[in-house]
Design brief:
- The structure is a single chain.
- The protein is α+β, with helices and mostly antiparallel strands.
- Helices cover 22% and strands 44% of the residues.
- It has a domain of 128 residues: Protein Transport Mog1p, Chain A (3-Layer(aba) Sandwich).
- The protein has a seven-stranded antiparallel β-sheet with strand order 4-5-6-10-9-8-7, with helices on both faces. Strands 11-3-2-1-12 form a five-stranded antiparallel β-sheet.
- The N and C termini lie far apart (46 Å).
Length: 196
């Protein structure tokens, strides 16, 4: 029988191993592609689970990847807005069917203060899903608007969230639209993402 210091050491080792495993399946990188109208364009790549994602994040925004939650968050230069991408890490080949009722619950995060004000289809470069515009008022009475979009891929849903002050929402919608228009999902190949 192991004593408690050995159990604590084993627990730490398992936690580190789990973190390394998540980091191995969540890799951010870059790749240049030749676009006839624009020349060489530097795309961001994200390998996660069985999928690889390729996209153009908002220029000048601060990037914060988090392998534990399978998210990448970009913060605007003025720190008033954010764009968040969350991807599935699973190894399932199954592509889920969107269920609007279930996605509404996800979109509001089951919080009563998050009110859906609009619902619409959304599109990426090759994929389709559902988007929800949400309003909420903070404790300081500031109005926040966000758009949450859910696009099905193998293993689950890719979640896109853009949020910021209500008076800047139209600009944030444009940022999300540019991001979605560049977004592609494919099957990952070994070493498909080069390091940043």
């Amino acid at each position: 029988m192991m004593n408690s210091p050995h159990l604590a050491a084993l627990g730490c080792l398992l936690a580190v191993s789990a973190s390394l495993s998540a980091a191995e399946t969540f890799r951010l990188g870059t790749r240049s592609e030749e676009i006839p109208e624009a020349g060489a364009v530097k795309f961001t790549t994200l390998s996660a689970g069985l999928n690889e994602y390729v996209f153009l994040p908002p220029p000048g925004w601060k990037t914060e990847p988090d392998s534990k939650t399978a998210t990448v968050t970009w913060t605007s230069p003025d720190f008033r807005s954010l764009l968040r991408l969350r991807v599935p890490l699973g190894d399932s080949e199954t592509i889920p069917k969107p269920n609007a009722d279930e996605l509404r619950v996800l979109a509001t995060e089951s919080k009563a203060e998050n009110k859906i004000v609009e619902e619409s289809p959304c599109y990426t470069a090759g994929l389709a899903g559902l988007a929800f515009d949400i309003e909420r008022t903070t404790d300081t009475k500031a109005a926040i608007r966000m758009r949450r979009a859910f696009v099905p891929v193998a293993g689950g849903f890719v979640e896109f969230t853009v949020s910021g002050p209500a008076d800047e929402f139209q600009n944030r919608q444009s940022d999300l639209s540019r991001f979605l228009n560049s977004f592609r999902a494919t099957r990952a190949t070994p070493n498909s993402a080069s390091s940043q």
